[in-house]
Amino acid sequence: MLWLAPQPLVVASRSAARRAMLEASGIPIEPTEADIDERQVEVRAGPVSPAQAALVLAREKARVVAVQRSGCYVVGADQTLALGDRRFNKPADRDAAREQLKAMSGRTHALHSAVAVAKDGRVIFGHVETAQLTMRRLTDRFLDAYLDSAGDAVTASVGAYQLERLGIHLFERIDGDHFTILGLPLLPLLGFLRREGCLVG
């Protein structure tokens, strides 16, 4: 057994990919959701870079849940996407997803993935990593086929794709850590948990 902490790791995220990564690494988790207004959190933070925005949101998700879960380690995570100076959020619908994909077609965008850990309402760890992804030039025919095949999943993540699924067909080059691209800088998180004595060192 690698996990040493007396309670499961509380994961304040809706992301099935993040939960699956942690479970696959042998960590018992307790999934929950952080009840925060992400846009309000960003407004309070003031002007920040896309990378810092991801970290601000990850920290707040972890902190809010940790206030309610005494003694537990709580993980929060967030991801932002930037195409030059333009930042993208999750598309509201198929049309918005198509617009985003057309904007990114043939260009390189940055994915910023942040993770934070809080305990007893206090953030004790935060880290953000960036990956660069280059989309191939997407034809209208491909976009129609992709959107039809992916369905509602295109509205579930920033950028209108999941790299571990059909989203892989969008790209010609990817530079960055695989876990970061999936939305969780896993290796830095595991290193922190080992230092805390939650994992066998």
From TrEMBL:
Cofactor entry: a divalent metal cation
Intracellular or extracellular location(s): Cytoplasm
Active-site residues annotated for this sequence: 78 (proton acceptor)
Catalytic activity reported: a 2'-deoxyribonucleoside 5'-triphosphate + H2O = a 2'-deoxyribonucleoside 5'-phosphate + diphosphate + H(+); a ribonucleoside 5'-triphosphate + H2O = a ribonucleoside 5'-phosphate + diphosphate + H(+)
GO biological process: nucleotide metabolic process
Main location: cytoplasm
A cellular component annotation (GO) from this entry: cytoplasm
Keywords recorded for this protein, A-Z: Cytoplasm, Hydrolase, Nucleotide metabolism
Highest taxon of source: Bacteria
GO MF annotation terms: nucleoside triphosphate diphosphatase activity
EC numbers, comma separated: 3.6.1.9
CDD domains: Maf (cd00555)
Function: Nucleoside triphosphate pyrophosphatase. May have a dual role in cell division arrest and in preventing the incorporation of modified nucleotides into cellular nucleic acids.
UniProt-listed PANTHER family: BIFUNCTIONAL DTTP/UTP PYROPHOSPHATASE/METHYLTRANSFERASE PROTEIN-RELATED (PTHR43213), BIFUNCTIONAL DTTP_UTP PYROPHOSPHATASE_METHYLTRANSFERASE PROTEIN-RELATED (PTHR43213:SF5)
Similarity remark: Belongs to the Maf family.
Annotated protein name in UniProt: Nucleoside triphosphate pyrophosphatase
Gene: yceF
